[in-house]
Every structure is written in structure tokens, then in C-alpha cells.
Amino acid sequence: MEGGSVTLNCSSDANPAATYTWYKEDRMLSQGSDGQFQFTSISSEDRGIYYCKPQNKHGHFMSMSLFLDVQYAPKIPSVSVSPSGEIIEGSSVTLICSSDANPAATYTWYREDRILSQGSEGWFHFTSISSEDRRLYYCKSENKHGHFTSVSLFLDVQYAPKLSLVSVSPSGEMPEGSSVTLICISDANPAATYTWYKQDRILHQGSVGQFRITSISSEDRGIYCCKSENEHGHDTSGSLFLDVQ
After folding, report:
1. What is the pTM of this model?
2. Adjacent-strand bridge partners of 18
3. DSSP β-ladder status, 27-32 and 146-149
4. pLDDT mean over 145-154
């Protein structure tokens, strides 16, 4: 287990007495007469193949290899999205979580505090991602030695405007000469631009979604609607009838 004290021992029948050299793969670790190599606090980086070479003036001999299978809790998980780049509503998206651990980690994906999936693969797949999936996600990797939680990942799902709603302020009767504001709102990412129409005539276009008539007249009586649009599409509101009195 990571953090524990471990001693490698090597002994050999030799005359005169042998000196011992310990290796990790092809890197020399120590040389001396006692045949021991000690880890005071073994780490995951020490996992690997070791062997010993005893030698004296008459020759040397190589030991069999020894594999140190150091076990340890998961390290900090890395999280990513595939494919990278813009995430468009309706597309296929996979969240990927990986963590260095021994034994291998199991992975749990969360959306905010709700569990989405749990298993050994470390991924969670959206076959057709939606605007409702625009949230924070994170992953927890764990094994019998401990667990680690990843940083949060924000899925900025982009989508065409939807649910365009129109209203008038103030509500109620509209006497001629009063000030009236038409209001259009829409759910969109990125934010929509708005175009106000009276019948088929464009009145106003901009990012705010409001059109103000400072002194309404009988000529303004009629049917109005709003179109919200962004780079992914557009949506047209229902009709709004201004009954100027």
C-alpha cells in the first residue's frame, strides 16, 4: 500500500562475500554488502520491476525479476468532453473521466448533486444533448483505498431560440397618447436578437427585445409579433393585439 515501509532483500552464496546491486528496470538504485534496499514511504511511482545483481571478484549472477505491485487510492481525475469545441443541441456528446489508481478505479458521474452513471469505463454518453443538459458536471473516482473528486465541468450547450413570449407593459387599457412597451423574451444560447413586426413591417431590431411607443395612437392599433434568432435558428412568437382606445 502506498505510504508503507518496504524492504527488498537479496542474498547469495559466495566466497568471498558478494556485494549487491539493486536495479529498477535498468536504473541502478543501490550498491552495498547487506543486500537490502528500503523504501521508507513507498509511492505509486515505485510500482515496477526490480532485480538484484550479487557479485565478487570471481563473477556475478542476476536474480529473478520481482514486480512491486504498489496499490494506491485514485489520483486527481482528469475530465474532458468529446468532441471538443462547441456543443450544439441534438449532437452526440461524451463525458470522459480518467484517474491513475491501483486497483483500477470505478467512476461516478454527477450532474450537480444527482448521480448519472457508475461503472468502470469512466464515461457518460448523451446520444442527443438538449438545452436542459446545460449544467455543471463532475466525476468521482474510487477504489478500496480511497476516492478523489474531479474539478467541475460546465457543458455550455448551444441552441436555437425557443419559447418566445410577448407581453405589453403596462397591461390593461391602452388610451391614445399613453406610453406602451412591447416585451419579447426567449430562451436561447447564445442570446437572441429580436425583431418586432406589425403585420409584415419591421419596427425594431436589437438585443434587448423591447419596443417602446412613447405616444400610442389609433394608427398603432393592430397585430404585432416578435422573432427571436441566433446563429442556430429562430423562433416566432404568437400574435399580440394592441387595442388602442
Report:
1. 0.80
2. none
3. unpaired
4. 96
